Every structure is written in structure tokens, then in C-alpha cells.
Amino acid sequence: MQNTHLRTYVKKHPDNKMAWYLLGKEYLGEGQEAKANYCFQQAGEVYEAFERSKAPADIWVDYQDKLVEMSEQKEKKQRRRKMWLTLFMLLVLAGLPPADAPGFSREAADALSAALESTDEIPDPVGADQQAETAFIAPSNVFTAAAFGGGNHGEAALAAAWSGSGPKVETSAVLGMQTSDDWSLWKRNMPVKYIVQTNTSGKLTAQSYDAKQCNCEPPEITPKIKKMALAWTAKQEAAASLSSAIVAYRKKNDAWPKSVTQMAQPFPNNILGETAPGMTEMFPKLLALHQGKAQKGKSNSSGKENGSTSLDSSQGKNAAFADTLGGQPFLQEPLEMVIDKDKHKLALISGDTIVRIYDVGLGGDQTPEGSFIITDKVVNPNGRSNGEFGSRGMQLSNTNYAIHGTNEPDSIGLDESLGCVRMRTEDVEELFALAPQGTPVRIGEDVLPDLTLVPEAKQRYQHTLVPKQNNPNKTYHWLN
Predict the structure, then answer these.
(1) What's the rounded Cα separation, in Å, for the pair 316 and 332?
(2) Of 153, 344, 404, 463, which residue is the catalytic one?
(3) What is the structure's pLDDT at 11?
(4) Which of 94, 304, 373, 446 yields a CA-CA distance of 20 to 30 A from 85?
(5) What's the CA gap between 447 and 352, in Å, rounded?
(6) How many angstroms separate the CA atoms of 392 and 405, rounded?
(7) Number of H helices and number of E strands within the chain?
């Protein structure tokens, strides 16, 4: 971005200290030190925070684009909101409550008036006489993750953490995902790369925790933050499983589920074969998210203006994802499985993020290629946990092929089956819990990185088996 664009932006947003800082960096790069110093003075504590972090220069090019882009989007929303609020206020002042707002009251008018005065900007530091008013604010901890590696520095996540900060005591932690080719790698113990903090006086600071990136000796991450980060990643996995189950239930029944229990039924209605802690609390938010997407799709297809959807009603201070930057689940794309016949790998993915990569046994040319879905999900397909199909089986599109356990663990990584996908017991049981019935499966060659991505035993996905997951009415004869 040229500094002429930033100058225009600063004129419109003279209180945006980050914009002043970025403009100063532009002038400094052009050798105009006097102008740069003036901009840095206007940036105040932003200059101090980011200069201390010693982030590499090339990060700011993408960072400023992301920040300005997000700020412009925010400004557009504010203009649109102010237009409608102004119209409402005019109607109120004229004594004509809007026809589509029954019960419109003076209290509502006062709230709208207050909203008109709000700028949603990062607050300036408050004085000592105001600190008592902010002392009661409960601190919050918000997490997100971003790809770091292969030229990625997590600019979008950093910009989101910065622009999302408001008049509250908050710690926004950006966890770092490694990359492999075009994939981002999800792990249960991802390192903290950045923390953006707002304190009780409204001061915003940022700290890099990557010694190579900041060229510094970063402080230690507190045990509390590490523990919360682990809990956050576990929650996102449960949310991805539940969200995918909602999508699968809708496709199968042409209706939305009313509860988690409705999806966690005995065989064959076991969309969810296993449940995880927190699913009941997450369900209303995730259901509203998918209903909102469906409504938006209908509005777009009919050419009508999109109105508010049930997604809006799921927002709130005590939302299920208040610990996630943006208030939405991080892994939003439905789960899928990808099987690589060359590398003998099975990956569970969400969009371009790999959640797990397991080692598997295959059948060489006898393992079919193509697209399938998980149909039958069965516990103890042979009637016992140590049979040839192990303790779990997931059938591929009503064929004679399945993903299942094995009583021949030495065959993992080899082509010794008659076409089925063999997995170790601990792997297939975790996959069975994560991937709902209806999960798409793609089998091909050279489609995954040659690595294994599985948590250590104590960090495995925690789940509770739904009763009656066996199929007493059928003996399976998959091509093991």
C-alpha cells in the first residue's frame, strides 16, 4: 500500500494509532525521518509495543493491508448501522414508531441514541478517576490460531486480534499452526506465537513469543495460558465433530436436529457414535450458525436482500464461543477424510486444515479410489473387540469396503488387505468418535504430506460411547 493511501486513511481516522504507526513505517522506509517521527509520536504506546516486539519488516506489508481492509469493512458496517439508526431516531422524534418494530419505546430510543455515539474504536488510556469504573471488568481470554511457516506470519489473525480489542480487559492469544505444502497442521499443543493484551487502563500491547521472528528473548508463557490453550483446542475439535454431525443429520433427514441426543442414538441412527464434554452447551450456537448459512443461501438464490437470521440471536456475552476470537468456532468447514494410497495415510481435515493424520494399512490396487461417505458406524463389527475388524468399523457408501480396526497391527503401513483400510485400535476409536456418520471420504494417490499427526495418549480426543452401537442384525463381510 502506498503512503498516499495511508495518509488518506489517517485523515479519516486520526485516532487510529495503528494507522499512524504504519504510516510512520512507510515514511521511515522512504528516508523521511522527520515525518516518520511525527507519526510515531501520534502512535504513542502502539509504537512502543511493536518496536519492542522487533517483528521482521516484511510482516508489516501484509499486516497493514489486513488491518486497513478490516477497518474499512468495519467502517462500512458502522455507516450502514448509523443510517438505519438515524432513520429510527427520526421516526421516534416524529412520534411515528416504525411499523416493523412493535413495542418501540423511549428506552429503545435512548439505546439507539447511545449506539449512534459509539465509534467502536480502541479506547484511549483512562485517567485515575476513571480506573475505578473499569476495575470491576472481569478479564477474558480469547484464542485463535494461524498458519506460521512457508511465508505465512499469521497477519490476518494478528489484525483480527488487534481490531477486535475493545473496552475490556482481554488477552488474545494467537496459536501457531505449522504448514506443509498448502495444508495447515492442527495440533493439541500448538505454541503461542503472539499475545495482544488490553489492561484496565485501556492500554493495548502486543508481544511476540517466537524468538526467531522477534529476534529477542521472549518471556515464558504462563502455565495458566498453556492449560487454557489445550482446553481451547480440545473444545474446537468437539465443536468440529458436532458441527459436522448437524450437517450430516440435515442431509439425511431433511430437517434440523433438536438436540445432541437426537444425533447420538443407537445404531443405525448413530450420526454421533460418541459425545464429548461441552457439546450440549455448544449445540444452540452451532445449530444457529448452520441455520443462518442456509437462510443466507436461500436469500441469495432468490435474489432478495439478506436480512437477519437466527445466527444473530446466538450472539451474546455468554456465547458458547466467547473464548474464541470472533465468537465463532475456529474449525468451521465440515470434517472430511482423505486417504493417500501412496503414503498409507488417512487424514481428517476441515477445509485446508489437517486435524489428524493416521498411519493405515491398505490393499494396493484392490483399495478403490474415488469419493465415498461413511454409512454404517459399528462397534465390534465381528461381535468382539479383538476380531479381524477390531473394535470399530465405518463402512464406505454401502460397499464391501470399510475403515476398521485390525487384529494384525503389523500390517499398518503395508498393502496386505483385500481393499479395506486398517487402523490401529487407538486411532480408529478416536476417528470413530470424531467423524460422524455421513462424513465424506476421498481416496487417491499422493494427496497428503508424508507425516503422522496424532496427539500423545493423554491429549487424545475425549469422548463417551453412546450405548448400543453394535449391529445385532448383520454379520459384516468387508474385504479385509
Answers:
(1) 19
(2) 404
(3) 79
(4) 304
(5) 12
(6) 6
(7) 12, 16
Output the pLDDT for position 136: 41
Q: Mind listing the pLDDT tens digit for each residue in 285-316? A: 999 999 999 988 777 766 654 443 333 444 44
| CA-wise closest residue to 148 among 205, 202, 208, 75 | 208
214 an active-site residue?
no
100-133 residue pLDDT tens: 333 333 333 343 334 333 333 333 333 333 333 3
Residue 39 is a catalytic residue: no
Q: Cis peptide before 467, with omega less than 30 degrees from 0?
A: no
pLDDT digits (tens, 9 = 90+) for 53-98: 555 555 555 555 665 666 666 666 555 555 544 444 444 334 333 3
- DSSP E strands, 285-420: 335-340, 345-350, 353-359, 370-379, 392-396, 402-404
In whole angstroms, give the CA distance from residue 86 to residue 94. Answer: 12
> Could you tell me which residue, 64 or 274, shows the higher pLDDT?
274
Please identify which of the residues 216, 420, 463, 477 carries the catalytic annotation: 420
Which grid coordinates are listed for 449?
Answer: 504430506
Q: Which three cell numbers stand for residue 157?
A: 489473525
C-alpha cell at 409: 497391527
Is the C-alpha dihedral spanning 98, 101, 105, 108 positive or negative?
Answer: negative
N-to-C CA span, the chain: 58
Amino acid residing at 247? V
Give the helix, strand, coil percentages of the chain, each rounded to 5.
40, 20, 40
pTM of the model: 0.72
Residue 81 has a pLDDT of 53
Cα→Cα distances 450→25, 342, 359, 379, Å: 41, 9, 10, 30
For β-strands 274-275 and 204-208, DSSP reports them as: unpaired
| Domains annotated on the chain, with CATH | 3-120 (no CATH), 134-221 (no CATH), 232-296+326-480 (2.40.440.10)
Per-residue pLDDT tens digits for 365-379: 999 999 999 999 999
Euclidean distance between CA atoms 231 and 462, whole angstroms: 11
CA atoms within 13 A on the CB side of 345: 21
